[in-house]
Automatic annotation (TrEMBL):
InterPro entries: Boi1/Boi2-like, PH-like_dom_sf, PH_domain
Lineage: Eukaryota, Sar, Stramenopiles, Oomycota, Saprolegniomycetes
Protein's recorded name: PH domain-containing protein
GO cellular component: cytosol; early endosome; recycling endosome; trans-Golgi network
Keywords assigned: Phosphoprotein
Record-linked Pfam families: PH
Domain named PH: residues: 2-108
GO biological process: endosome organization; receptor recycling; retrograde transport, endosome to Golgi
Organism: Aphanomyces invadans
Alphabetical list of Gene3D superfamilies matching this protein: Pleckstrin-homology domain (PH domain)/Phosphotyrosine-binding domain (PTB)
């Protein structure tokens, strides 16, 4: 599994609870080629996972701030999967663009599966190490591979 990006943003609730509210929650996210996992905090409990294996560049939407009700910020993206539309809000425009680029890289990697893997997050580029990640209450290892310029 390749780590592409990690950090905090807001996500809109699915409205699947008892009161069907689509409230906003700040979460810590970890993006890999296969999925987007979110936690209550950086070293916290896994709260959910969005399967990205069937997503393409057409799955990613930028949303004007007036389209989504009660957004915490003006910078919003949505990812449409076969099972849901996942809406996120970012602290800055730069954060939104950084995450959009990382999502597009994940989608491209899925389309090109079998080719060289690489790390997008500039702070992690070129590093080979193992990163601990909480998964369903237990720690699992997330292997990171070096940046590779494919010809």
């Amino acid at each position: 599994m390749v780590l592409l990006k990690r950090g905090c943003m807001y996500k809109q609730g699915s409205g699947a609870g008892f009161f069907q509210r689509k409230n906003w929650k700040k979460r810590y996210f970890v993006l890999t080629q296969d999925d987007l996992r979110y936690f209550d905090e950086e070293q916290g409990v896994l709260k959910g996972c969005l399967d990205l294996s069937e997503c393409t560049k057409e799955s990613l939407e930028t949303l004007p701030s007036d389209v989504v009700n009660n957004t915490p910020t003006s910078w919003c993206l949505a990812i449409r999967t076969p099972s849901r539309r996942f809406i996120m809000s970012f602290a800055t425009e730069a954060d939104m663009h950084g995450w959009a680029f990382a999502f597009l890289e994940a989608f491209k990697m899925n389309e090109d599966s079998g080719r060289n893997t690489y790390v997008v997050d500039g702070r992690l580029r070129g590093l080979v190490k193992e990163q601990k990640l909480r998964k369903h209450g237990s720690l699992s290892k997330l292997k990171m591979t070096p940046h590779n310029h494919a010809a």
